[in-house]
């Protein structure tokens, strides 16, 4: 886990650490469905997924977005996180392991605060990008 630098030393290109996640299990998907109230059968019913043309169930996109939230809040804090957006770029099958990473894309000073824009990515074990994202973090100067 990476620790946040002081606002004055945060630079464009700095990495914020990484987060390993997985393997994704059927139990994990069922528990996430219950916690998120997202019971879309494509994520929890193998027969339904196969009828829809998939090999099997796959992870909820928002489960991956939650990992971006974990990554950013490990680096800064949940209170510092102002916005988080995610693009789902690949299906995450059962059994997948992912690595979530982030780096500083921009920084600015305003009203005594450092505003940091982070570019976020997540990759499946084979290197396929599964998620991309962006976060805005505000750090007191």
Automatic annotation (TrEMBL):
Residues 23-107 form the MaoC-like domain. It comes from the Bacteria. Pfam families: MaoC_dehydratas (PF01575). This is MaoC/PaaZ C-terminal domain-containing protein.
């Amino acid at each position: 886990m990476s620790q946040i630098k002081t606002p004055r030393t945060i630079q464009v290109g700095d990495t914020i650490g990484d987060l390993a996640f997985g393997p994704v299990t059927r139990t994990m998907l069922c528990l996430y469905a219950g916690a998120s109230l997202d019971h879309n059968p494509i994520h929890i019913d193998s027969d339904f997924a196969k009828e829809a043309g998939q090999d099997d169930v796959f992870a909820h996109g928002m489960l991956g977005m939650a990992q971006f939230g974990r990554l950013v809040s490990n680096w800064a804090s949940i209170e510092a996180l102002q916005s988080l957006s995610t693009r789902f770029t690949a299906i995450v099958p059962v059994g997948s392991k992912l690595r979530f990473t982030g780096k500083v894309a921009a920084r600015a000073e305003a009203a005594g605060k450092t505003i940091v824009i982070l570019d976020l990515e997540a990759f499946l074990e084979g290197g396929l990008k599964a998620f991309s994202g962006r976060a805005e973090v505000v750090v007191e100067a």
